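Minimal example, chain plus guanosine-5'-diphosphate.
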Amino acid sequence: MSLFDNINFKKLKEGLAKTRTKLINSITETVSGKAVIDNATLDEIEEILITSDIGFDTTEIIIGKARKTLKDEKDRSAINVVETVKKELSEVLKSNYTSNGDDVNKFKPYIILVVGVNGVGKTTTIGKLAHNFNKAGLKVIVGAADTFRAAANEQLEIWANRAGVEIYQKEKGSDPSSVAFDTVKKAQKENFDIVLIDTAGRLHNKTHLMDELGKIKRVLAKVIPYAPNETLLVLDGTTGQNAVFQAEEFRKVTDITGLIITKLDGTAKGGVVFQISSKLKIPVKYIGVGETIDDLQTFDPDLFVSALFETS
Ligand SMILES: Nc1nc2c(ncn2[C@@H]2O[C@H](COP(=O)(O)OP(=O)(O)O)[C@@H](O)[C@H]2O)c(=O)[nH]1
Ligand SMILES: [Mg+2]
């Protein structure tokens, strides 16, 4: 059971339209009219998957299993290859999936740190998350620990207002850790349920950025030993392969408990969700399918694959 009632299948389908055209429609065209699926057809499907941001390794897993099914089946005409690929795609997502929200009621405050490079959608996603938690009846505060960028506070404040939640901020240039510290202190004192901490995506250099994240975590743990409950890495789905590289970099320096993949609307690179899932073995928690406050959806492997394959 998800904590949020935020899955809108129609919107999910619409959001995945470009990926569907690139991925699923190509597969369907490849197999259509073929009475028997032979190895050459599977080779074609393999190529479609590889070039759809699913990546080589993940494609090999999927196609490997499909080939086996094909080999085991005496009557090849009975094989629905599209269904086989669909099933394997679901498996890839499910094997790295854990459901959301189970722990939120066990910790108070429940602390979520949101990280990722500049422009991936951290602040927007925090606004959407705050909205969802608020709708679920929880008392939410957001902490503006991106003190590096001039407009960062204002932008988070706009989102906090939209979501109807509180914000804690200091002037630009403040120590991000001190903002995180004070936000959590305030949350404890004033009985907040959820703390969402926004962070900078770019500092003077990469080492500085990673050091700063480490420091925020240490400082949080000083206020509350279990903090943060989650460290969510936001990745921009439109960047395809690059999102995979970013995740690999972040996980080297900090424990990432979950992923949020944004901007799946308007990109044909949604296949990257499969690659990210299978390569990183970190669960995808949420996906962004638009710019408005209702455009964050809890990630559900089966629904995601169904939405991708549903053409009508
Ligand atoms: N289309 C679309 N745009 C998004 C989504 N999430 C974020 N954005 C846009 O991405 C841009 C950068 O977002 P922002 O939250 O400022 O990124 P940050 O630098 O990581 O905090 C903004 O223009 C957002 O509207 C999404 O799911 N879909
Ligand atoms: Mg931001």
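Residues 116, 118-124, 201, 262-263, 265-266, 288-291, 295 surround guanosine-5'-diphosphate (ligand 1) (CB under 6 Å). Residues 206-223 form the longest helix (18 residues).
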